[in-house]
Amino acid sequence: MFGKKFVPEEKPLETAAERDAAKEPQTSAVVSAPEKIVELATAAKPEKAEQYYALKKEIFSALIATIDVAALSSMDGEQARKEIGAIINDIVAAKKAGISMAEQNELLNDICNDILGYGPLEPLLARDDIADIMVNGANHVFIEVGGKVQETGIRFRDNEQLLNICQRIVSQVGRRVDESSPICDARLADGSRVNVIAPPLAIDGPSLTIRKFKKEKLKLDQLVRFGSISPEGAEILKIIGRVRCNVLISGGTGSGKTTLLNCLTGYIDPRERIITCEDAAELQLQQPHVVRLETRPPNIEGQGEITMRALVKNCLRMRPERIIVGEVRGPEAFDLLQAMNTGHDGSMGTLHANSPREAISRIEAMITMGGHSLPGKAIREMLVSSVDVIVQAARLRDGSRRITHITEVLGMEGDVVTTQDLFVYDILGEDEKGNLIGRHRSTGIGRPAFWDRARYYGEEARLAAALDAAEMKAAA
Predict the structure, then answer these.
(1) Residue 100: HSE in the Cβ half-sphere, 13 Å Cα cutoff
(2) Residue 133 three-state SS
(3) Which of 42, 83, 188, 201 makes a 20 to 30 Å CA pair with 279?
(4) Taking Cα atoms as reference points, which of 126, 143, 141, 155 lies closest to residue 56?
(5) CA separation for the pair 128, 212 (Å, rounded)
(6) Cβ neighbours for 312, distance < 8 A, ≥ 6 positions apart
(7) CB-facing half-sphere around the CA of 251: CA atoms within 13 A
């Protein structure tokens, strides 16, 4: 099939255990559950791990010398795994490796992942409870689960294997990473965000960071169950999404800004035309009339870059009803505010800031960075006339994520932007396990500034009921 035949060597491999194939039923390329593989790799003793990786490296080298990798591309995944499995069985038997069937199946799974997938990352990518995967060179892989970062025992064969997997990832979206272009942002097929920084900039080997993309799209009701927001606060956010308020979602890295933006977009009328602009497409809008746009970095000659600002400006020529910007981080802030203020009500975006007040200052700074020679007061007046609500998200020190403020932008008093909080999150203490205890409370605002807008869209009764319920809970 592959045009080559494996010829066994005289010298057998060192054995890690007595061969017990006779004790166990023969199976064909059985693959262990991804969670189990991660647990085995994490719990493995160092000396056992060294023997396993040495065995894997020798068998992998013999396999590559035997098969025609190009021929695998014409097969489907299952057929390719069977072909690889048959050759690995022959290699293991010829080399008298002396490993159990369970170890052989795990070895087969790892090698198939190396050749057909993303190598040691495959079991991590298969787990939906992992939020981030952080690879610091070939020997250090960290994951974030439940808001806490932990090291796994998973490792790569060497930095060359890690760089090859990085190149395989970014090539799927037409990008490259090597010494001449060592920094790259890309995404996986499922939308997960990927950042790669390679040597010589990364001194200890390639650094790969993956922000996982959850298979299940979260909704505000689920955030209520997680304690991220109160039921009354969630109802207010739903109304804000329906009545076409212009919204900025502010928060730090990993605070859940994109997740919250996804939740809010779920309450957009399906008849509206929505255009999204992102650095790496990861929003999961469910409406039928959506145009997704993505920036493009410059090529190796430094040409062909398409910036976020260019995308936002182009949106205005595409007859949008809402513009959604995945992250505002530069001079595109000016164009987004202009869009919000010129008939594109209900536009949304996220930005990095630690409070609603800081978000206002950040927007002003980003517009100034864009070279606009506008007085500070003029910028603030444009912001006030454009942005209706700022929603603040935060990741607390115990790893939990909370919506800490729902804040309205009201107007100007002199040179100062005035705001009012509708909901805030108060930290009351912590339990014996170190988990923070807090509560969401209404600030008692009788009528928010978007009350007339809610009346126009027929949401006045719901808004009044949500505010009344929040005030009653706060009084109790």
Answers:
(1) 7
(2) strand
(3) 201
(4) 155
(5) 8
(6) 277, 323, 325, 332, 335, 336, 339
(7) 26
Three-state DSSP state, 59: helix
Tens digits of residue pLDDT in 208-249: 999 887 777 788 999 999 889 999 999 999 999 999 999 999
> Which DSSP symbol is given to 147?
T
Relative to beta strand 348-352, strand 322-325 is: parallel
Q: Which CATH number fits domain 117-213: 2.40.40.20, 3.30.1370.10, 3.30.420.40, 3.30.450.370?
A: 3.30.450.370
- For the chain, residues classed under CATH 3.40.50.300 are 220-475
pLDDT band of 77, cuts 50, 70, 90 = low
- Find the angle CA(154)-CA(157)-CA(159) to the nearest 5 degrees: 100
Q: What is the pLDDT of residue 341?
A: 85
Beta strands 183-187 and 193-197, pairing class: antiparallel
C-alpha to C-alpha distance for 461 and 434, rounded to whole angstroms: 40
Which of helix, strand or coil describes residue 315?
A: helix
Contacts of 39 (CB under 8 A, 6+ apart): none
Specify whether the CB–CB gap between 192 and 211 falls below 8 A: yes
**Whether pLDDT at 34 is above 70:** no
Question: What tokens does 1 get?
Answer: 């099939």
Q: How many CB atoms lie within 10 A of CB 333?
A: 29
The half-sphere exposure of 258 on its side-chain side, counting CA atoms within 13 A, is 25
State the Cα–Cα distance between residues 323 and 350, nearest whole angstrom.
12
137, two tokens: 């060179």
Stretch(es) of the chain classified as CATH 3.30.450.370: 117-213
Q: Give the pairing of strands 130-136 and 141-145.
A: antiparallel
Strand partners, 165: none
Backbone dihedral angles phi then psi of residue 81, each to the nearest 5 degrees: -65, -40
pLDDT of residue 361: 93
Determine the pLDDT at residue 236.
94
Structure pTM? 0.75
- Contacts of 257 by beta carbon, 8 Å cutoff, 6+ apart: 249, 250, 251, 327, 350, 393
Q: List, for residues 146-196, the tens digit of each pLDDT value.
A: 878 899 888 888 888 888 888 888 887 777 888 888 888 887 877 788 899
Looking at domain 220-475, its CATH superfamily turns out to be P-loop containing nucleotide triphosphate hydrolases (3.40.50.300)
Instruction: Please name the residue that has the structure tokens 């009545």.
Output: 243
Please give the average per-residue pLDDT across 432-446, as a whole number. 87
- The per-residue pLDDT of the chain, averaged, comes to 81
- Give the three-state DSSP class for 246: coil
pLDDT for 75 equals: 63
